Amino acid sequence: MLTPDQARDRAADIVARAVRAGADAADAVFAADASLDLSVRLGALEDVGRSESEELGLRVFVGQRSASVSTSDLSTDATNALVDRAVAMAREAPEDRWAGLAPQDRLMHGAPPLLDLADGDEPTPAELREWALAAEDAARAVPGVTNSEGGGASASRSIWALATSHGFAGAYAATAYSLSASVLAGDAATGMERDYAHHAARKRAHLDSPDAIGRRAGERAVARRNPGRVASGPMPVVFDPRVGSSLLSHLTGAISGQAIARKTSFLLDALGTQVFAGGVSICDDPHRPHGLRSRPFDGEGLPVSPVAIVENGMLETWLLDSGSARQLGLEPTGHAARGVGGGPGVSPSNLYMAAGIVPVATLIADIADGVYVTELIGQGINGVTGDYSRGAAGFRIVGGQIAGPVAEFTVAGNLKDMFLALTPANDLEFRHGINVPTVRVDGMTVASG
Q1: Are residues 124 and 269 in the same domain?
Q2: What do you get for the CA distance between the two ends of the chain, in Å?
Q3: Less packed terminus of the chain by CB within 10 Å, N or C?
Q4: Among residues 180, 209, 208, which one has the least CA distance to residue 194?
Q5: Of the candidates 223, 241, 275, which is a domain's last residue?
Q6: Is the pTM of this model over 0.85?
Q7: CA distances from 356 to 248, 361, 436 (A)
Q8: Residues 116 and 256 in one domain
Q9: Bridge partners, 198 (sequence order)
Q10: Residues 266-296: tens digit of each pLDDT
Q11: How confident is the model at residue 324, as a pLDDT?
């Protein structure tokens, strides 16, 4: 695989060629990835695969017209043809008054922050196999587990580079390691219940042990055996951290520049107002060392920095790339994100809700009748109105205690009301790209399936 410097030079070279071919401005992304994935089931190797890819994406501007093209054929003839095709396409494209590169005076210059995203430790297929087997063995050893969907392990290394025609060129490398197990509990007579555990990390040393992953998967599956039904009606809903993070995804979709510019957001007029309960803070930290979504610059070459998106319940910022910022008469916020094809969108980096002040036991202690949700199903979200309805599974809360498992019910409400009625516990852990503590939302509607 190329080094980050070589990847940066590849991107810069095709930008220079685009300008020579007649583009007024251009930017290019080069992405390379090499990964090894392995899965086992019932103690035997089931699948092993290795993939390697290199892709190049080019965006060119002719006046206020633009076009984007991409290729995995990096030969000289292919990239020359790519440049010519992109410029020709841009000349025929419709004008977009908001299109263009990021403001030149905002580009990142100097040494990027040291984020420690790449590990030099590359496991062998034999090592990955041992990890996966150990995770599955630990899951199957939990009393009550009756079958397995398998264990999996993977390791990858990627490089991402961006260059623009107005003065930016940068690249960085990252590694990722993951481990998972998925098992079933129960039998044909009483019903089978499935659950899983998964962990991913930039550094091999930071990955949870196979035994821990396996035990967690097995215990979760066993706890879900013989689910009952929950009564319908309004009640408090408590979201486990592994599903509560989806609430922040709905927030970021609603405050993205594109949604605001198109007036398709339930938070359209909410900037500077209270959208969460007092005391709730939500932050984005692109500089977290070895974070799963850390990055030294955004998808347009702008510097990034930690920012409070919600502070003490107040919405402090939109998430803006340059195009949506121009449309709204604002400045880009360093949240541009892009793949190889097309122009930039927006995305947070390491997004998290700050921990609250109460333990989980205290959070649920006064709930006479409620539900603790560990799984969400479906995508019943209306981004324009904020209406929310999703299938769910989890556990009853009775008399302030977690009780038996329940399944086949829906939780519904409106995200604006849910955000204002949300209370976080104090159990925040940084394990994923988006992290939240256990959260309680009062006043939701629960309906049994």
Answers
A1: no
A2: 51
A3: C
A4: 180
A5: 223
A6: yes
A7: 16, 13, 10
A8: no
A9: 180
A10: 999 999 999 999 999 999 999 999 999 999 9
A11: 96
Unique residue bearing structure tokens 């590990």? 119
Same domain, residue pair 201 and 257 = no
pLDDT of residue 60: 98
Average pLDDT of the residues of the chain: 96
CA distance 113 to 170: 12
Mean pLDDT score, 405-420:
97
Task: In whole angstroms, give the CA distance from residue 293 to residue 347.
Answer: 10
DSSP letter (8 states) at residue 205: G
Give the whole-angstrom CA distance, residue 377 versus residue 354: 25
Angle made by CA atoms 339, 28, 55, in degrees to the nearest 5: 55
- The answer to whether residues 217 and 298 belong to one domain is no
Which two structure tokens, joined as six digits, stand for 88? 């020709």
Residue 176 and residue 257 in one domain: no
The enclosing domain of 84 has a CATH number of 3.30.2290.10
Domain count, the chain: 2
Task: Round to whole Å and give the CA distance between 121 and 110.
Answer: 29
pLDDT single digits (tens) 117-127: 999 888 999 99
Strand stretches in 188-277, DSSP E: 191-201, 233-239
Least Cα distance to 297 among 165, 59, 106 occurs for 106
For residue 171, give the amino acid letter: A
Amino acid symbol at 354: A
Instruction: Quick: pLDDT tens for 135-157.
Output: 999 999 999 999 999 999 999 99
**Residue 398 domain boundaries:** 227-449
Enter the tokens of residue 204: 């091999």
